[in-house]
Design brief:
Residues 8-190 form the Immunity protein domain. This is Imm52 family immunity protein. This protein has helices spanning 17-34, 59-69, 75-78, 125-128, 130-141, 151-161, 178-181, 214-227, and strands at residues 2-10, 43-44, 80-86, 93-100, 109-117, 145-150, 173-176, 191-194, 200-203. By secondary structure, the chain is of the alpha+beta class. Strands 2-3-4-5-1-6-7-9-8 form a nine-stranded antiparallel β-sheet. Helix 6 packs across helix 8.
């Protein structure tokens, strides 16, 4: 069963609803360029049924949706939480969730793209391109750390290093912000791709050509942690990235 996630986290960065919507609209457009059949016809969060409302992936429509789904006081502090999903013929079920705009010194912002299916497996082109999708998300959301993982890899890394869900780690690929990238060892069994904002994606799949086993992923985490590239952001947060 396919269960692959691409995600990223960052610290304090206040943003308006229109600014968050612009990032999200750009992300959805770029995802469509990577794989039109998978990333087509986005539905509002609901019951995961075709009857859920379809949302036009434009900045104005997304801004209205974010405002509609987030009500109450202090939203400029707690941030905005919203999600969309897509499921199209012969493609995986995809969900995208964001929590952005928070200025809390104790709550991380995040973006997550999850692929799940009983029919589609990890040989699918869109899954092999997951490290490229990680780079795309990092460039649109300018996050601090991010990764691509499946559930066994995630559990193995969490248990080996005693990590909380939002702690920095490396899956089959990892994104490091510019400060973290400067600390990363250069000899991991991976390809290294720079991002537009000075960050780095380290891809243990080498562009989807390889399937790193759990021990390879554990070793990459060990070396990155020893170098200081996976240290937590200092709490309380005073910035978005390391």
């Amino acid at each position: 069963m396919l269960n692959v996630v691409v995600n990223g986290f960052w610290g304090l960065r206040g943003e308006s609803v229109p600014a968050v919507a612009e990032r999200w609209a750009g992300t959805l457009t770029a995802l469509g360029d990577i794989d039109g059949p998978t990333f087509d016809v986005w539905h509002e969060a609901g019951d995961g049924l075709p009857s859920d409302p379809v949302l036009e992936p434009s900045a104005p429509a997304l801004a209205e949706y974010i405002e509609r789904k987030n009500t109450g006081p202090d939203l400029d502090v707690v941030g905005y939480t919203t999600s969309l999903w897509a499921r199209n013929p012969a493609a995986a079920h995809v969900s995208m969730a964001i929590h952005a705009g928070s200025t809390s010194q104790y709550a991380l912002n995040s973006v997550s793209l999850a692929f799940r299916s009983r029919e589609v497996d990890e040989t699918a082109e869109v899954i092999r391109r997951a490290p490229e999708i990680l780079r795309l998300l990092a460039e649109h959301w300018e996050f601090d750390t991010g990764q691509v993982y499946d559930r066994p890899q995630y559990r193995a890394v969490a248990e080996r290093f005693d990590l909380a869900n939002s702690d920095p780690r490396c899956g089959r690929a990892v994104h490091l912000s510019a400060g973290r990238a400067a600390l990363a060892p250069e000899d991991l069994p991976a390809t290294y791709v720079r991002t537009a904002h000075g960050g780095l994606v380290i891809d243990l799949t080498r562009g989807g050509a390889e399937s790193p086993d759990i021990e390879t992923v554990i070793e990459a985490n060990t070396l990155l942690r020893a170098a200081g590239a996976l240290e937590k952001l200092p709490v309380p947060f005073d910035r978005a990235t390391f």
